[in-house]
Design brief:
The chain is α/β, with parallel strands linked by helices and 527 residues long. The protein is 35% helix and 19% strand. Strand 6 and strand 7 (151-156) form a beta hairpin.
């Protein structure tokens, strides 16, 4: 069962994970499986002797695909484990020896989080200190105690390894300061609740012009990458860096990118191994970008409005509580035809989270990577790009929108290139099924943040949009089996929408045409 203390601990874990690009999380003990599922990070492992997935409602079951559950004793797990973790949360009673053992699996800058559940019968700071009276533990760890919620954070002493977010505490109540090196932001980190809309400090750098990172993730896009980089460099905004994150391309991308050697605000990175599309997004955001604000421009797309960043930042800088700006894009087909998106029209310049989520229902408001600028620091706290799904960008941006006012521009500022090899076009039935996590997670998070009312039918409307997109399986790939597998997955989430689309004449006729061999694939199927 979920408690306020459990939710508070998970909130701290989420914020701690915002400091790590790999986002490796281990939880020992599962007081609330739903809260555990809601932690957003690429790698989650949970250990418990009592795991009951029946605790998860059917419509939230896709969360389980992004969680590794180990059914057994923590002692046995630790004896067999060979992985390192960035954050280890202990939510079950433990000894100092067990905590000491966890340090063996902690990444160099990692942290161990202990909740009230793991403190046995200790009720005072003095007693908590006595819980950790092992000489070894005293030597290897520093601790910070949040007395109101009985939460302890441990990390390695500065003698062993300095921590990137440890720089000072601002009047932390009942913190054992003699043990704590200087730590930034842990005061706000431990302050419930989580991100509060409109209450986050307005970040700026270099006077009136915060640094904006245009991040260009790419893989084997040698034919397009120059146009992407040049369009970023053409932006009129005065404080800009352009980051190219090459996901270990096997074409001549690196040779082409050599032309930017010596350009002071361009940095080109090549990952040592291929991380995949979403992994590359996250690596660039967490490790390569330095800006307070980020625009993610895929390597096969480009910006055609050179004033986009300047316009967005002017509005952001004069609008406290705005952490994301969204404009529009055009679609450029391989035959040269251009189609303009109809989203984000007829809105006031600034809208609330509630207004944005309401407008998502009919797709009149939406986000596209190249036409969106967002706050990097808040994005990291929220676990951007944690799930390897087709709509990882929307999944991430919706979480930020739920915590922010939104600057909306009707302008078409970017070009999305349609060339048949796009991830969205080539996605298979399995990928579309996995992508159902996006509407489910956006709905679940919107409910948590109070920006969606449960009775509005928001989830049903989003699932309908997903079903219309899945029609590509029939129309482009002649994959009737895959389409009906997708609908079967929808049935578990929204039975009403399942029956609605199962019986649609257009889909029935297309399915019959495929069955009789009348309809052939127009595009090759994705993997």
């Amino acid at each position: 069962m979920c408690t306020k203390k459990t939710a508070f601990a998970h909130d701290i874990a989420q914020k701690l994970l915002g400091h790590f690009s790999q986002g490796r999380y281990l939880q020992i003990g599962i007081p609330s499986l739903i809260d555990l599922c809601r932690i957003t990070t690429p790698h989650k492992v949970a250990v418990s002797e009592h795991i009951d997935i029946a605790d998860i409602p059917d419509h939230l079951s896709p969360y389980l695909d992004h969680l590794t559950l180990w059914n057994g004793s923590p002692k046995k797990f630790l004896a067999q484990n060979s992985l390192d973790f960035d954050v280890i949360a202990i939510t079950t009673p433990c000894s100092a020896k067990a905590v000491e053992r966890c340090f063996d699996f902690l990444s160099p800058h990692g942290a161990i989080l202990l909740t009230n559940h793991s403190l046995k019968e200790c009720d005072t700071p003095t007693a908590w200190g006595e819980t950790f009276d092992s000489n070894t533990l005293e030597e290897i760890s520093c601790s910070l105690i949040s007395a109101p919620q009985k939460t302890i954070i441990l990390w390695r002493t500065p003698r062993q390894q300095s921590h990137p977010f440890i720089k000072g505490i601002n009047n932390m109540e009942r913190a054992s300061s003699e043990k704590i090196p200087q730590v930034p932001d842990l005061h706000s980190l431990l302050k419930p609740p989580s991100l509060t809309r409109g209450s986050i400090s307005h970040l700026k750098s270099k006077g009136e012009h915060p640094l904006v990172s245009i991040v260009i993730p790419t893989y084997n896009q040698a034919g397009f990458i120059l146009q992407a980089v040049d369009s970023a460099l053409a932006q009129t905004y005065p404080n800009l860096e352009v980051i190219v994150s090459d996901d270990n391309s096997t074409d001549n991308s690196q040779q082409i990118l050599k032309r930017y050697q010596g350009v002071k605000n361009v940095r080109v990175y090549k990952n040592a191994k291929n991380l995949g599309r979403v992994g590359n997004y996250r690596k660039a955001l967490f490790d390569y970008a330095h800006g307070d604000w980020v625009l993610n421009l895929d390597g096969d797309d480009f910006l055609h409005d050179p004033t986009w960043v300047a316009k967005a930042m002017k509005t952001i800088s004069s609008s406290p509580g705005v952490f994301i700006a969204c404009a529009n894009q055009v679609v450029l087909h391989s035959n040269g035809n251009v189609r303009k998106s109809s989203m984000n029209r007829n809105f006031p310049p600034i809208i609330t989270s509630e207004e944005a989520f309401e407008a998502m229902r009919d797709n009149s408001f939406g986000t596209t990577h190249a036409a969106t600028i967002y706050n990097r620091h808040e994005a990291m706290k929220l676990g951007f790009y944690s799930y390897d799904i087709i709509s990882s960008d929307e999944h991430s941006l919706h979480r930020l929108i739920a915590n922010s006012k939104v600057a909306v521009f009707p302008d078409h500022v970017a070009t999305w290139r349609f060339h048949g090899a796009n991830a969205t076009v080539q996605s298979s039935a399995a990928q579309k099924i996995a992508n159902l996590l996006r509407p489910i997670s956006s709905y679940d998070y919107g409910l948590q943040q109070g920006v969606i009312a449960k009775e509005t039918g928001w989830l049903e409307d989003q699932i309908r949009l997903a079903c219309n997109d899945a029609y590509r399986l029939l129309k482009d790939h002649a994959d009737a089996k895959g389409f009906y597998a997708f609908l079967h997955a929808v049935k578990k989430i929204c039975p009403k929408v399942y029956w609605e689309f199962l019986l649609k004449p257009k889909f029935l006729l297309k399915g019959l045409a495929i069955s009789f061999g009348i309809l052939k694939p127009r595009l090759s199927k994705g993997k």
